[in-house]
Write a structure and sequence with these properties.
Blueprint (H helix, E strand, L loop, with lengths): L9 E6 L3 H10 L5 E6 L12 H16 L3 E10 L6 E2 L2 H7 L1 H9 L6 E11 L4 E12 L15 E3 L12 H7 L1 H16 L1
Parallel strand pairs: 1-2, 1-3
Antiparallel strand pairs: 3-4, 3-5, 5-6, 6-7
The structure holds inosine 5'-triphosphate.
Length: 195
């Protein structure tokens, strides 16, 4: 397993093409003794699976084989209740093709506005494979609001925020309550005790 000298900060590579994830991860990991840097794995294959855990684990194992060092991967998705959890694991594809407004059209004027973001962070060091999952519940708004963040942030208001979207918040405010913030905080707690 990856080991550190006491009091040293560990830097782990996070396999992602999404810079916002790296920013959010580092905010969540403050004080944990872990920081992440982005690493783009050329030719990375994304597993098609029904679960974020499998996708994130597969990416971490693949990343380790490529980099020969301990790595992290994160898979996340947006699950809309009135669409029976769609787009879920297909969120990236739906965001790239339909976009925020296309998804709003699919939801239409459904009275069921419940939605959630889920995140799974996977750590793999050649021996130990661990996953850290978290979610945040809220509602899908009727129109986009705010300009910060990424992806579906403008149309999601977490329950705690009373209709303020993730895109209306600063990255630090979002990360305090978000799926990704919580998953990386869990990783940080585990890393502090085990790495
Ligand atoms: P990598 O796979 O390279 O890490 P990605 O952006 O494709 O980056 P995911 O597959 O994990 O990341 O995420 C799927 C999509 O879900 C993402 O493109 C967004 O549209 C959406 N999403 C995930 N987390 C989000 C968040 O915190 N805020 C807004 N949208 C999010």
């Amino acid at each position: 397993m990856f080991r550190r000298e006491s009091c040293m900060t560990i830097t782990l590579k996070l396999l992602t093409s999404n810079r916002d994830k790296v920013t959010e991860a580092n905010i969540a990991l403050r004080g944990s003794g872990v920081r992440v840097t982005a690493s783009v794995c050329a030719g990375k294959l994304e597993l098609q699976s029904d679960t974020l855990e499998e996708v994130a684990s597969y990416a971490a194992v693949q990343g380790y084989a490529w980099l020969h060092e301990a790595v992290l991967a994160e898979d996340s998705g947006f699950f809309v209740s009135s669409l029976k959890g769609f787009p879920g694991v297909y969120s990236r594809y739906v965001f790239d093709t339909l976009g925020v407004n296309g998804l709003l059209k699919l939801v239409g004027d459904s009275v069921d506005r419940k939605a959630e973001f889920r995140s799974c962070v996977a750590y793999y060091d050649g021996r130990v494979l661990r996953t850290f999952s978290a979610s945040v519940q809220g509602v899908i708004l009727t129109r986009p609001s705010g300009s910060s963040g990424f992806g579906f942030d403008p149309i999601f208001a977490p329950s705690a925020s009373r209709k303020i979207s993730f895109a209306d918040m600063t990255t630090a405010e979002k990360t305090r309550i978000s799926h990704r913030g919580e998953a990386f905080r869990r990783l940080g707690e585990w890393a502090r005790a085990n790495l």
